[in-house]
Here is the input.
Amino acid sequence: MRKLDLYISKTILLAMLLVLLVLAGLDFLFTLFDEVAGVNERYTMKDALTYVLLTFPRHIYDLLPITALMGSLIGLGVLASSNELVVMQAAGIKAGRVVWSVMKPALLVMLAGILLGEYLAPTLELRAEVNKSIANSDQIGLSTSGSWQRDGDDFVHFDAIEPQGVLHGVSIYRFNDAQEMTANITAERGRYENRNWVLENVRQTFFSQADGGIESQSQEFEELVWQTDLSPDVLQLMIMDSDKLTITALYGYAQRFISQGQDASAYLLAFWNKLLQPLATAALVLVAISFIFGPLREATMGARVFTGISFGLGFIILQRVFNTVGAVYQFNPLLAALLPIILTALIGILLLRKAA
Here is the structure.
């Protein structure tokens, strides 16, 4: 029985690796073509290639659930086409045993996803985004690029940040309780020292109400200390989309938004989606198994591949629909992330019961 488990698991794992190789190769080419389109005098071809290579682990992480789905379909399809599944059932091997044998390589995929999503991909993604933002940063003050952050009554914009704690193109807009702007600070650079930011080449402008309008008074400094609890670690997270952060970073960032009275639903939703990705992978593998024991037992390989791609895309669309509806109608983020997984698992269970 152990040899049988090993044989099924090995077949499924090889199929998953083949699927990942094909999908990752296509994804790499499409990402490279898309990034090359943004090459200019500052952002060179070398920068674009470096960006694609550094973000490649995160793309692999995103591909793992559909890789598990299609790999299971193809691997089990090979066994079904050669009548090996029929022989196993005739020998008294129950479907549950096959399910467990297929889940073993799926567990390896889940483990790889955890390692990539928590340790490797976010670190390299951050390095890629920092490099790209620095390459595209060429001016002081407000620009259409860069990132925004709220710090109490201040709104902060910066063009780029280096891992060593150096800001480029800093703008700080300070407001009072009446939502009136009282000061604007722009700086060419800022360096982090002794838990404070030291701004360089600074222009500070104060605004005050006067008869018939607003008066302004400006000063320039070579250096100015900016006291804030925004550390380089926090600011670096800002240049990354929520779905590219680690689980721990998402939770910490969501708590920061909540403490400032801001909407943290996007970060909580990304947190639950990442935390529940292993369950999503298991649900997709369960559906793949139910397809082979049910409607796709006699199908061609092309039909199985098409079904795998279609169902994988359908699952992604379902996730995005629930995420969007949850954001619009303020659903519980955990519920919005969990419902697509539950529905997918129910489909797999019902098809398996019907085929039994």
